[in-house]
Design brief:
Elements: H1 7-14, H2 22-36, H3 44-58, H4 66-70, H5 85-88, H6 94-110, H7 113-117, H8 124-153, H9 160-185, H10 193-207
Helix pairs in contact: 1-3, 2-3, 6-8, 6-9, 8-9, 8-10, 9-10
Length: 220
């Protein structure tokens, strides 16, 4: 009946944690179902996937008709209140903050690789190719660092909007600092700036499958 979705797959599809409470699950479902609802121009298969994910996380209990979840019942037209940032942010311990700082230092150090790998005698095309390869570890490290920080910084009540915003606010300063460090070291990352953003885009897609960036495949 649920199309073979596991608890983890269902949670990923709605952009919530597997242990999220029922209200968080319903709120996430309503958010994405409004976008995917077929009568409003959405994709029917995506809407069905969202519905099955909701069913799995709620244990098939107290599941309303799709129309009732997408269009709120009369007398209950106000959407569920969104958790504030103060409610979803977890205060990290000093040890966790220290690990975050060490990770940021490593990511910044990797931004120096282009300066060491670029050869002065290489042609312009060879230098761009070398720069792209050398910038890869720094780009992956920045996105990975942002994902790790956000996972520890936000609790289960955080919705997809909280997570994407937190990812951007953690990744952007570090990526900007990498560009500055690389420039100082003599290996500018400006020619490959789009490459630096690719791992971040992948991180957003991984944390936000409910927006349709990727979907859990159906099992036949």
């Amino acid at each position: 009946m649920n199309g073979g979705l596991t608890q983890e797959q269902a949670a990923s599809l709605l952009g919530v944690d597997p242990g999220a409470d029922s209200e968080t699950v319903r709120r996430a479902y309503r958010t994405w179902a409004r976008l995917a609802y077929p009568d409003l121009g959405g994709d029917a298969r995506h809407f069905d996937s969202l519905s099955r994910a909701r069913d799995v996380l709620l244990g098939f209990e107290d599941v309303h008709d799709h129309h009732e979840d997408v269009h709120d019942n009369e007398g209950d037209n106000e959407p569920a209140p969104r958790s504030t940032w103060a409610e979803v942010i977890v205060r990290p311990s000093p040890a966790v903050v220290l690990r975050w700082c060490l990770g940021a230092v490593v990511a910044l150090a990797l931004a120096c690789l282009p300066a060491f790998l670029l050869g002065g005698g290489d042609s312009a095309s060879d230098q761009v190719a070398t720069l792209a390869i050398a910038a890869g570890p720094a780009a992956i490290a920045a996105a990975g660092w942002a994902v790790i920080v956000v996972r520890r910084l936000l609790d289960a009540r955080a919705d997809v909007g909280h997570r994407i915003t937190a990812l951007a606010l953690t990744w952007l300063p570090l990526a900007g600092a990498q560009v500055v460090v690389a420039q100082i070291a003599g290996g500018s990352l400006i020619p490959v700036l789009p490459l630096l953003a690719l791992p971040f885009v992948a991180a957003v897609a991984a944390v936000n499958p409910g927006a349709g960036l990727w979907q859990v495949p159906r099992r036949r």
